[in-house]
Design goal:
Distance between the termini: 22 Å
Radius of gyration: 14 Å
Helix content: 55-70%
Shape: elongated
Strand content: under 5%
Structural class: mainly alpha
Number of strands: 0
Amino acid sequence: LSGNGFSVSWNPTIFSYKSLKESASSLKESTKELFLKLNTVDFEEVIKAYEHAADVCEVYKMENTFKVTA
């Protein structure tokens, strides 16, 4: 498997974060909203936001009511 950097270099039309996001038609509305709120098309950035939110819930003993399923 090659990393995203290689894939983008090979064919940016298909493998850029923006085109990957646009082709992911099955995203939940809440995930689409998070992309907008974070002003990004980078899946890794959105996943990190979910992970950080889960960490905050754990520290504050809050119930983690979301599941990262995109």
